[in-house]
Amino acid sequence: MGLILREKAEYLATFRWLEVFLMETLARWVPTTPEMEVKVLMGRHIWDAAQHADALGKRTFELRAPLHYTLAPLPPYLGTMKELASVEDTPGRIQAVYDVILPGLASRYQHYLQNSDSLFDEPSFRVIEGILNDYARMRKECGEVRAELGKALEADSSRMQQWSREESVTTRIVVHGSGPTLAREVTA
Amino acid sequence: MNASAKRKTVKGITLCADPAREPCFRIAQLDDEMQKFESALSKDAMRERLHRHMNNEMGALEIAAQCLADFPESPWELRVQLARQAFDESRHVHALHRRLRQLGGYKGEFPIGNFEWAVTNMCDTLAARLAIQNRTFEAGQMDLLGGLREIWRSAGDETTAEVLEHILADEINHVRFANQWIRKLVQADRRLLFKVASAVRFLAETNSAVSDGSGPSSEESPAQKHIKLGINVEDRRHADFNDDEINEILRQAGMSSLVSEGAKV
């Protein structure tokens, strides 16, 4: 059996937390990243992450949870995200977002789609399919900036592989069943 | 440490330290460190204007982004507007950089200043930052763009004029949402009025400290240049300034004779 209604709301609330986290991470990095083209890239994608969080937050309400219901992920994944958000150098920041976080989240969104039903949960499917399309565009735009800046963004591939392993090793990220019975009773 | 928490001192005034820039940029702390030209319509002067504008848009992007980082508890709808602003300012930087290169310019060709960032991030409330950055600096830019696009057109550069038209359209939205949210935030907490008023006074003091004194006395100050280009009454109205506010701006700009006329535009 796939996800029940409440679990769907919890998944989407966790995805919303991750999109807000991405938005805030990019926002914090814009003034502290020297390269102008990278600031522009991140500035563009702040808006993408905000739109994703907005759409997910509206969908949680339709699933009988609070409007903009938001759940932090389980501690191991939270720790990985915080570690990635603490990267200081520009090539590392680019790797963290575009080579680790976005592909990792894309795979988790795909997993959600595989475990939900495309008829009853079609509105969520539409939201997530839109997010996945955006991720593909965001990574393409990052590729263009990498091509433009060349050596300035060359990075340590072993570090990226290690981060990817850390991101993917955590299979469970969603907090289920804590708090009140109905998600709607929880304060967002 | 947050980027907005670092400090620098300019002419005895404590300001927020500069945001990160590539080594190719030379950062000016005072107006008279910026490059000056005998003719404002020379090719070098026109490129300098684009270069300066590009850096100002980068600053606007950084300020909107820093607001998202510094005020996570602000209303979600307002955060979405700030995120949208970050997207718009990013596109402005990109468009101005592209146009600068088309005209033979490049990043770092002229000195830059980060005055807006330095002043705005001294405010510890979102309402005050919106009042300084969006309602004052960006609204001022609306006035400037209203005049500058015609200057570019008169110089035969329709392409740059069109770039400025698009930027102006976006800026109106940024000023409008700020005006609307400042009213809402102040209604919910009247103490914010004091914060906003203090921020406006701090801006005036800082502005006069960094722009007067050491420069040649015959040169026009940025405020004088601004007044010469006029107040963009129509777009200020689109940006949700009311008649009283527009009249006050005209009075402050020494255009009292236009007050009743301006109110009818």
CATH architecture title of chain B = Up-down Bundle
| Structural shape of chain B | globular
Spatial shape of chain A:
globular
- CATH fold-level assignment of chain A: Ferritin
How would you spell out the order of helices and strands of chain B?
Answer: EEEHHEHHHHHHHH
Strand-residue proportion of chain B: under 5%
Supply the number of structural domains of chain B: 1
DSSP strand tally of chain B: 4
Given the structure, what is the number of helices of chain B?
10
CATH architecture assignment of chain A: Up-down Bundle
The CA-CA distance between the termini of chain B, in Å, is 47 Å
List keywords for this structure.
heterodimer; A: about 190 residues; mainly alpha; Ferritin; 6 helices; about 0% strand; disordered C terminus; B: about 260 residues; two-stranded antiparallel ribbon; two-stranded parallel sheet; 4 strands; about 65% helix
Give a short overview.
Chain A contains six helices and no strands. By secondary structure, chain A is mainly α. The longest helix of chain A has 28 residues, at 122-149.
Characterise this structure.
The complex is a heterodimer of chains A (188) and B (265). Chain A is mostly helical and 188 residues long. Chain A has a single domain (5-174), classed as Ferritin, core subunit, four-helix bundle (Ferritin). Chain A is 69% helix and 0% strand. Chain A has six helices and no strands. Chain A has helices at residues 5-29, 36-62, 75-85, 90-115, 122-149, 157-169. In chain A, α1 (5-29) packs antiparallel against α4 and α4 packs antiparallel against α5 (122-149). The radius of gyration of chain A is 17 Å and the shape is globular. Chain B has 265 residues and is mainly α. Chain B has a single domain, classed as Up-down Bundle (Ferritin), CATH 1.20.1260.10. Chain B is built from ten helices and four strands. In chain B, the strands form two sheets. In chain B, strands 1-2 form a two-stranded antiparallel ribbon. In chain B, a hairpin with a 2-residue loop joins β1 (7-10) and β2. The interface between A and B is medium-sized, with 27 and 31 residues.
